[in-house]
Amino acid sequence: MAEAPAPQGGSSLLFLTDEQLRKGIEAMFFAYRGFTADPDRILEGREMGRAHHRAIHFIHRSPGTTVSNLMALLGVTKQSLNRVLRALIAAGLVEARVGRRDRRERHLYLTREGAALERELSDAQRERMRAAYRTAGPVAVAGFRQVLEAMMDEESRRQYEALAGRGGQ
Amino acid sequence: MAEAPAPQGGSSLLFLTDEQLRKGIEAMFFAYRGFTADPDRILEGREMGRAHHRAIHFIHRSPGTTVSNLMALLGVTKQSLNRVLRALIAAGLVEARVGRRDRRERHLYLTREGAALERELSDAQRERMRAAYRTAGPVAVAGFRQVLEAMMDEESRRQYEALAGRGGQ
DNA sequence: CTTGGAATGTCAACAAGGCTGACGTATTGT
DNA sequence: ACAATACGTCAGCCTTGTTGACATTCCAAG
């Protein structure tokens, strides 16, 4: 199972065979299922879905972000996002404040209850991530992130790095 | 596996901080978007979606598989899968042969046209994967797969390994 | 000042693709 | 003969994406 590919004479490109690539593709498919399973389960009871989770996550990450920002980040239309936001606001999880400088904008914030749900969701997801990280070890984790970053398209990578730069590290 | 985690004083669990985990979570989100982008684009013109892609992929991987098998693999209901299969059969991409031993079963195969489409889809997806792998290098790729495997839930890991064992390597 | 264009956000209607429930049909095994 | 299995289908619902139409707000040109 995935041993380091023996630094023999040439550059040993055995890790680029179709077979290896296919395995990576299937690993992404099955892993993503696990990745979303816990939050999905939590939200099931609350009449919400994955779309709500994503919105909550990024509002938590960037408090005061506008609808347009969130739209670009999530890669959905404003109409689609709007439905989700309406539900979150109705449920008292998100607050939309009219912009002071530009009153067309709505700045989004989690309420106390919204923050609590965010905690619950991200705790569950982080727990699975933590277990996977611990099992695989720090070197594997570094590789994991490298490959994922290389897999993003240009636009996503920009967004990812903008978030990463802000959050810390 | 178990790489030595930087043998400084303590056990150096810095890679397990909430911040690192959050980055991993966001990396998964953005990378998965890239992962599915190319096939989605190809299928757009053909009145098909991601669901059809998944079915085609696994029928290609396991020619002759039954409807029940595919259901379990994809994690969807038979009604949901049936809609997809009906479309694929109507489009002449998939053939369903009545089982010889058990004539209740339908064994699924790609037709010549189905195989051609599968090629087109997997070429696109593999190409992105190959680029990411090449950029990140073999050590990173090994780590990538380790973390993904650790992230799957039990059932998915079983399925993943069953496929991997069959395909080669 | 006013007016038109651009940005922003909302409402309505529709499609894809999940789901459950109920039922029919062929086939198999007891 | 009968129960269980594998599959197909109809009907209806939900979530989450889409487009189109429209209201509000801002800004810049006349």
- Following the backbone from N to C, one meets helices and strands of chain A in this order, namely HHEHHEEHHH
Instruction: Please identify the oligomeric state.
Output: homodimer
The CATH architecture of the largest domain in chain A would be Orthogonal Bundle
In which range does the helix fraction of chain A lie?
A: 55-70%
Could you give the distance between the termini of chain A?
Answer: 32 Å
Rg of chain A computed from alpha carbons, rounded to a whole number of angstroms: 19 Å
Helical segment count of chain A? 7
Overall pLDDT score of chain A: 88
Summarize the structure in words.
Two copies of one chain form a homodimer. Chain A is mainly alpha-helical and 169 residues long. The first copy, chain A, has two domains: 39-126, Arc Repressor Mutant, subunit A (Orthogonal Bundle), CATH 1.10.10.10; 137-169. The first copy, chain A, contains seven helices and three strands, in the order ααβααββααα. A three-stranded antiparallel beta sheet of chain A has the order 1-3-2. In chain A, β2 and β3 form a beta hairpin. In chain A, α2 (50-61) crosses α5 (112-136). The radius of gyration of chain A is 19 Å and the shape is globular. The relative contact order of chain A is 0.10. The structure holds a DNA duplex (30 and 30 nucleotides). Chains A, B: GO terms for molecular function: DNA binding; DNA-binding transcription factor activity. Chains A, B: Residues 18-153 form the HTH marR-type domain. Chains A, B: InterPro entries: HTH_MarR-typ, MarR/SlyA-like, Tscrpt_reg_MarR-type_CS, WH-like_DNA-bd_sf, WH_DNA-bd_sf. Chains A, B: It comes from Limimaricola soesokkakensis. Chains A, B: Keywords: DNA-binding, Transcription, Transcription regulation.
